[in-house]
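ok trying again, last paste got cut off:
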Amino acid sequence: MVAIIVHGGAGTIRDESRIPKIKKGVGEAVLAGWRELKRGSALDAVEEAVKALEDNPLFNAGTGSVLTVDGKVEMDAAIMRSNLEAGAVAGIWGVKNPISVARKVMEKTDHVLLGGEGAVKFARLMGFNDYNPTTEERIDQWKKLREKLLNDGQIPHWKKISELIREYPEVLRSTVGAVAFDGGEVVAGTSTGGVFLKMFGRIGDTPIIGGGTYANEFAGASCTGLGEVMIKLVLAKSAVDFVRFGLTAQKASEAAISLATKHFGSDNAGVIMIDARGNIGFAKNTKHMSVAYLNEEMKEPYIGV
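nice, full thing came through this time. structure:
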């Protein structure tokens, strides 16, 4: 059964008046992916769904990515197929759709992950034009949060950033992703601007194969939340392994999030999944996670936060 699921990030949406717009955004993304899925390609479906989210400034990926502590955009993205082909970019800037660059890494190179300036050079080589994804809203947020975080002009360390996230949980609303099954293969893709006020050069779980993005013959998964948690638990791979061990996609999602909560507490993780039969699963330990999904038995997508 062909199916697709997308997420727009996990965390707390303090201004709940934004929820209808967020639901609209993930709904548009799942339909963009569904159109490609009906043509027969889970790979195209995931790319188009993630691009729709990257192009929507409500989400922390592509246009609207959050800023590093020194006021720059450094984005991560990855895409992976069930045959274990994968491509990723880390700390990339100056492009509109990092997920598309990640796909080119998978298809045009012998590598899996390109980072920083090398990723930007590769993007230009592949014909991706220079693009500034910074929005005025993100600049205003950065100024306010940075002023609060800085102490006597010193560069903050991660403990302070973690304390800020606890005080302002909406800044964790990060990462977008999609997983699709076309009847033959499962594909997973994820894209993010990272965590607000992250250290320059910080790389999260999104481009780490197995951390925030993973797919194999059993299932595919895309994670969202605090990347350091997903990296340490190899959470996307762990979720897929739960399917391999016999759990349903839904139970595997719940088991993965239980693992995150056990080791690192709550308010830090979410995951979406599809298995190789087209079964959908998703779970979170945060207050909110925007999700939309659709399969061939449904007349219209499920959309929720």
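cool. The first helix runs from residue 19 to 38. The two ends are 25 Å apart (CA to CA).
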